[in-house]
Amino acid sequence: MDHYIISKGIRDQDITETSFNSDIKSEINDVQDFLMTCYTNIAIACIKTKQFALALDACNEVLRLKPSHVKALYLRSKALVSPKSAGATEDEMAISNLKMALMVEPKNLIVR
Fold first, then answer.
1. N or C: less crowded end of the chain, CB within 10 Å?
2. Could you tell me the pTM of the whole model?
3. What does the pLDDT look like over 44-89, one tens digit per residue?
4. Residue 36: CB partners within 8 Å, gap ≥ 6?
């Protein structure tokens, strides 16, 4: 009988960070869009698994690339208020994030 090992997730030691340099604006935009999608997905997964600090880090990476990224602002708000230890400071920060998101997309029903 064969035995298989099922691993959970990707180990940090299996990840290599590579810098990307290009003078072509469309390539730079494509890479940034890809990174924002990856970090947003990481934030969603971290919120679902109650790893709120990691979710905040992922959202911050998205917002470093695009400060007006509505989904990252929303997810950062969610990650701020979701821990049981969240208090008034986190609530205020979350509200501030949601206000920024509404300034970008006033008709976004999820943010409202």
1. N
2. 0.83
3. 999 999 999 999 999 999 999 999 999 999 999 999 999 999 999 9
4. 62, 65, 66, 69, 72
